[in-house]
Amino acid sequence: MEIHQLVLFLYMADFFKAKKPPSATSDTRVFWYNVTMRTTEAWAFKRQLIYGTFFTTLFILLVVFLYFRYFYNPATCFDGSLNGDELAIDCGGSCVRICPFEVSDPVVKWSRSFEIRSGLYNAVGYVENMNREASTKAIPYTFKLYDADGLITERSGTTVLPPDNVYPIFAGRIDTGGRTPTRTFLELGEAELWQPSPLGREQFTVVDRSLSGADSEPRLDAVIENTSLEEAREVEVVATIFDQNGNALTASETFVDNFAPRSKKQVVFTWPEPIATTLRSCEVPTDVVMAVDLSGSMNNDGGDPPEPISSVINAASSFVSRLGGKDQISIVSFASDAVLERPLGGDTGSAIETIKNMSILPEEETGNTNTGEAFVRAREEFTTSRHNSDARKVMVILTDGLATAPREEPEVYALTEAATLKNMDVEVYAIGLGQQVNMDFVRAIATDQSYAFQALSSTDVDAIYQSITAAICEDGPAVIEIIPKSDASFVPLQ
Question: How far is CA 202 from each of CA 161, 167, 231, 239, 340, rounded to the nearest angstrom?
Answer without folding.
Answer: 14, 12, 15, 16, 54
